[in-house]
Design goal:
- This protein is an alpha+beta fold.
- The chain has one domain: Pnp Oxidase, Chain A, CATH 2.30.110.
- 18% of the residues lie in helices and 51% in strands.
- The chain is built from three helices and seven strands.
- A six-stranded antiparallel barrel has the order 2-3-4-7-6-5.
Length: 131
């Protein structure tokens, strides 16, 4: 009997993360969860996103513990990777370097704040369709 759900090894999970540029950032403030769609770049130092001043950034500043999720599917299989970690504003030379990353946003307004998620846990699952 074939396995329909498999856990991804850490390096496989990172490979899936690097294959995408759009995910969901989950934050919490005062016990209330919020999820934001974001463009991102998976780097050796963590997940980098661009944002602007506002609710999402305020929530990160207030409670930096976050979760980040990316997934994809075809007619035959699906996968999901979840990163848990700590988010922080990038500054100084880190921002100067990040400005050269291939990291764009869907939103038309400028996104001049860079945030890095430093992972504490990376998990992934692969789902094969039952026939």
């Amino acid at each position: 009997m074939p396995e329909y759900t498999m856990h991804l090894e850490t390096d496989e999970a990172w490979a899936h993360l690097r294959s995408k540029s759009f995910g969901r950032l989950a934050v919490s403030i005062e016990g209330q969860p919020e999820i934001y769609p974001v463009n991102f770049l998976a780097t050796p130092a963590g997940i980098v996103i661009r944002t602007e001043e506002g609710t999402k950034l305020h929530r990160i500043d207030t409670n930096p513990r976050v979760a980040f999720e990316v997934d994809d599917s075809t007619s035959e299989r699906a996968w999901s990777v979840v990163v848990k970690g700590t988010a922080e504003r990038m500054d100084g030379t880190a921002v100067a370097a990040a400005r050269h990353f291939p990291l764009w946003t869907w939103a038309p307004e400028p996104k001049d704040v860079f945030v890095r998620i430093r992972p504490t846990e990376v998990t992934g699952r692969l789902f094969n369709r039952k026939h």
